[in-house]
Specification:
123 residues, alpha+beta, 7 strands
């Protein structure tokens, strides 16, 4: 009797275990380098526009007048990162974005990308 229970219960438990385990993947990391003048607005187009896709600032810039992700009719609902330095700032600026795609709405995103943007701000 015990062997029959184990014979049928063990596969069910294993299936439940594997279904409950979440696949953990490290995010893909991309480096972007750009040079802008203090008077310019830099834009990074993420390509993200789906309802279940997301974009967020993971590490905020430090010397900014504008540092935001804009997603509205003016960007055709694509998530676009925008940066403009503080007046008079010259130097290296850094911001990191986190992009998430691959969700069906019922599950978490399957694809995570970290975009590390280094901006050299000149006069």
């Amino acid at each position: 009797m015990t062997m029959k229970v184990i014979k049928y219960l063990l596969p069910i438990l294993l299936i439940c275990f594997f279904m409950a385990c979440e696949i953990s993947t490290e995010p893909e990391i991309y480096d972007v380098d750009a040079t802008i003048k203090t008077s310019e607005i830099y834009e990074y187009h993420t390509g993200i526009s789906g309802d279940e896709e997301g974009a967020a600032i993971k590490t905020q810039a430090k010397n900014f007048e504008i540092s935001e992700i804009l997603r509205n009719a003016s960007t055709n609902f694509e998530a676009v990162y925008r940066y403009k330095s503080n007046t008079g700032f010259v130097g290296l600026e850094y911001v990191e974005l986190e992009l998430k795609t691959g969700s069906d709405g019922a599950s978490p995103p399957k694809n995570i990308k970290n975009i590390k943007i280094a901006l050299q701000v000149t006069k």
